[in-house]
Design a protein that fits this description.
The complex is a heterodimer of chains A (156) and B (293). Chain A is mostly helical and 156 residues long. Chain A has one domain. Chain A has 2 helices and no strands.
Amino acid sequence: MDITLTIFGQSIAFFVFWWFCSKYVWPLFMGIMDERRQKIADGLEAAARAEKDLELAQSESTEQIKEAKTDAAGIIDQANRRAAQIVDEAKGQAREEGQRIITGAQAEIEQEVNRAKEALRSQVSAIAIAGAEKILEGSIDEAANEEMLSKLASEL
Amino acid sequence: MAELADAAHAVVEHGAEGQTVQEYITHHLSYLTYGRFPDGHWGLAHTPEEATEMGFMAIHVDTMGWSLFLGAAFLLFFRYVGKKATADTPSGIQNFVESIFEFVEAQVNAGFNYKNPYVAPLCLTVFVWIILMNMMDLVPVDWIPEIAMAIGGLWGLEHMSFKVVPTTDPNITMGMSISVFFLIIYYSIKNKGIGGFLSELAFHPFGKWMLPFNLIIEIPTLFAKPISLGLRLFGNLYAGELLFLLIAGLLGAYQLPAHFVWAVFHILVVPLQAFVFMMLTIVYLNAAHETHH
């Protein structure tokens, strides 16, 4: 084994490289790696928190859905009742309206009948007079017979 | 596979130059050495013999250069990635670098129980640097030396050695392990005081009446740490490199499957040795911070 000055050269290189590494290389990476470790830890923590939040939100939403369902059921019930009521009211109104129409129609019919009766009466009296004129071949004093004719017409 | 064929080709070429397998391997295990010649002037050694004559006053230009290049490349690359990195979803290369960071940080957190912000960067440096140096072993053994010899030929160095794997040079591994050793002593004295450090050597494990025995046990234990740390890495990589060279030198044109099998096995050794070096550094430094006794 030939030991030479190389051994000192290598020792010096050893210390210089060590110094360079601890001053200019090691801190670069340690800073970055610590930062990333922190980031990952934060990320995991955030994920755990988010999971908890999600769970909370889910239970809350379930609660709300349940509430909404109850509300909806109430509203539907009420609506149904209201609808029944409206239908009932409408039925009542329709019946009334029908009644009124019927009454009106009856009144009109009566009126029409009366009018027809009146017309008939006057015509009958005219016919009667004409008939009588024919029979008697002479004219009859209309005014003298007026009373008798209207009595006849009213008996029709 | 093309690279392996290349290596085979290189061996045939060596054969044509009349180089024996032994010469081939020796050549590959020698260093490109810059140092002081016996007559006092400094320069590049042209032969392994000249390099040996230089003794201690020499620098292995090849392994030292690769070591510096790989270390600097790794740190600058990591810094470049770190500059662009974001704390948002990381992508591609940032992911890759961060996974290395996380791995090293996990090892340090598991093995080192005290507050010292410099230990983790130390472990990262050592781990990645050693992996890169070891990985040079997976480059076919003749590629870079051939290129280096071609370039060296321009200055009359056409037979120069060029060793590519820094961790097969004991100077490189021991240079690191001795640095760790100094850190052990520095942190021991800093945390326990000189008295605490010395009493650990003198009064354990048998109590103060057995002081000489304690010293006989503890002092070799202390010095065994850097030696075993450096030599383990060196030994593993040297053995791996040697086997690559043997395959290239002995098997000739039939070396391809053998290279492949050994390279696959070596892929395991490359990060494992880097990991062992890092873990032992953590353990030693942790012991240097222990104050309860």
